[in-house]
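Can anyone check this?
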Amino acid sequence: MAEIQVEFDVPAQMRDGTVLRADVYRPGGTGPWPVLLSRLPYGKQTPMMGVVLDPLAAARRGFMVVVQDTRGRFASEGEWEPWTYEESDGYDTVRWAAALPGASGSVGMIGASYFGNTQWMAALSKPPELKAIAPMVTWSDPDDGLWTRGGAIELGITAPWTLMMGADALMRRHGTDPAALVGSLGRLVQDLDGLADGGYGELPAGQFPAFARHDLPELGYERSRREPGWATSCRVAGRHDEVDLPTFQVGGWYDIFAQGTLDNFAAMRSAGRSATLIMGPWSHANQQHAVGDVNFGFAANSAFMGMRGRLHDLQLDWYQRTIGDGEALEPDTGKVLLFVMGINQWREETEWPLSRAVDTDFHLRADGRLTPEPPPTAEQPDEFTYDPMNPVPTTGGALLLSDEFRPGPLDQTAVEAREDVLVFTTEPLTEDVEVTGRVRAVLFIATDGPSTDWVARLCDVDETGVSRNVADGIVRVRASVPGEAAEHVVDLWSTSIVFRAGHRIRLQVTSSNFPRWDRNLNTGEPEENATTARVARQQVFHDSDRPSRIILPVVLPA
């Protein structure tokens, strides 16, 4: 095979004259070749590219690969404004890439997280040469996992991401003043390193002080509240019917955007599009087989995929069929590949959600019980005190925080020993129970304050009594009448796990998960200026008139 040719910093002029630059990898020979395009803000030669796409491997498979720095980042011109230009720049870049020397005129896009969203934005702009996209670990609605979740701020990701992205912004700002650059970068790194030791706790959370200190464009929460129309700049939800392309979507059960991946897939299927879905037991940045405290077995590793080969190769095989010169030039009708935790097996399906999953109630009961049977008329509510200045610490989950906070399933012993965490547990299971689908907690609850949060967490308790988190969620509520019980639903998103015989199913109920989500200060003040906290008295009801419960999508044995 002839040598792969690499051309660095190839300029592409956008419609407003701004020049963006890309590295272009061409296979040996003369072509023409289909193009795989990735547009990212992290530096086009960042090592993280290897997790998503190996340009050399793709070029050896006969693809021209184009990796571009987005506007205002690294080698590209312009001002860095997250999300703002990705739709128009995506359109212009696809058309430019399709016309490069040696290109066949067909373009597919690939990438994860932010550069998964750049694919959706380009697809929504409808460049005629874009034929397929393969977004990985990417949200659907930024107010469901990116900026906020259940009304609470996703502080855990917003703070480190904004500060990390600020390094290149400061280098551009102070590029001609070495002394100012060294000082500004030093202060930025100090804030980034200090998040876990108190920086996350700065108030107000809705106008995070560290962002103002460095004058940085933030992830999007503040601007989306000031300019509601701007929020569409990275929102896919509600627009899927505008995307008439096949998609290959990859997510993880412990990824911060797990539900977004599932929602995007389901919406594309509902719109009649070809869509493939792979969901592993992975977190946002870990597609290995050991996540959190659990080794899911080497079959779970993205390098093996249960003897299916590397995830990278599965993606390239799919692209070979959709835009390449493979045996089938038409796209796949799509398939679903789910990793079922607990039994640690990959399973092929034809749909999501599974139509054979049956929503099944497990009721909160007195003495910390969780039972299929509803409560009788008379059961006293459980109570606890929530102090925002002593919140429940984030311990595992589908999260992306500073490095001190590990994602995935972690031992919940310390969390469950707290007085502000209620725990409800089944008896040991007499047979395996599979839960695959979306999990919800319906809680009848009261607070003595004007506002508070409610957090619900599903856990798997093994035979030795170790409890590990499976899925969780939060809802921020305004109490119309403080102290009066009201029904609220907490969305725990989706999972796939078999609770093994001898294990127990557990539900935690509390009012904080910090710093994953910002603390509700219980005052009702807007997050943009709230700095004063109060303690709240919380009540969780479980009686015949107020049957608090968790709803699990149970897959019945065949």
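Reply from J.R.: I decoded it. The longest strand covers residues 433-447.
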